[in-house]
Amino acid sequence: MKIAWYHSHFLHHNSGGSRFVIDYASGLQDKFMHQVTVFCDCASEESRIEFEKLGVGLVELGKHSTNSPMYWLFLPFYIFKSRHKLRNVASNFDILIAGIFPTNIWSSKVKIEKVWLCYEPFAFFYDKDYLSSFTKSQRLFFKLLGFFYSRYDIKVAANFKKVITINKTNTKKIKSIYGIDAKVVYAGIDASVYFRANEEDIANFRGKHEGSPLLFHSTDLGGTKGTIPLLHIIKVLLRHFPRLVLLVTIYINKPEATAELMRLIDEMQLSRNIRLLGCLPKAELPMYYSGVDFVCQPSINQPANWPLKEGLLCGTPIIGGIASEEVNHSNGVRIDVLNLQDSVLKLSELFHKNKDDFYIDKDMLVDNYSFDKCLISFNNELLTK
Prior knowledge:
Strand order of the largest sheet: 5-3-1-6-7-8-9
Distance between the termini: 14 Å
């Protein structure tokens, strides 16, 4: 089967949405022998190299993307241009996969079978908690965008034969906003990569990264990850846990946002307790997941989270957001990162627990979330009428 897959951009190839497309497009080719071509507005050089290495076709349609104000100001023009280019090539494919707004609008008029991969309803239109992390002027800008375009986002949903999402929680949101029942295909994790390091290596790691408790946090510096509110929580926790250390990997290249985070850390006098690691290579992540006391991803309205699942596979308890599907009563705790007082209370209780108080069901994780199983489910959804 020849598949066209439309994703907004690949400027940050380590971001969750981009990573899903790269991994699953490659998997569909390698395991099921489909021919996949990915279309986007633009891509970074790193992304181009990765697509070429994987043997997946990549077609860039322009030079601007949704991370540019210019793009939003001239959105009707970009929609028209992208629709025109897609129509010209649509007859070469059997099925088209579209992503979240505005790729669903670009794809809605294409005359082939269409599947909508809706990670979640477009947060800039519908998620008040997510928008609360932005400035007042930014919230006004997104409110105006929602006023003009949310109706089209909802309207085109009926043009897709099937809607797929990546966690159960989002099915209710999609039903509420779009009136459609979505099928769930999880973002799979690779158990051959993510497993617990040996005790000697963990001991060496702890010798280099002292802290008690020692936490690990992965961020793109966007509002969803809860990074800034987490700093304020840690500031209060230090009164009772002065040796607490948070290791932070920033997996997207955002120099200005990184500099602002460093400035805030200095201003809050957290330099001894917050250590920025830069972008860690994928091969090093299992060691960090294994060596820390907790993997800390208190994301805002994010039900499914790769680092939490990967951390659990490495045998480490987790701190998830209030919407996290990964957390249960035995493997960690959920916190509302926007609720300072409640988060401090829950984490204080968590840090007083012993290792024996936690139980992590790795077999369940592999059975339900292995990459191979999730890829098979995704392929089946594409093939099912």
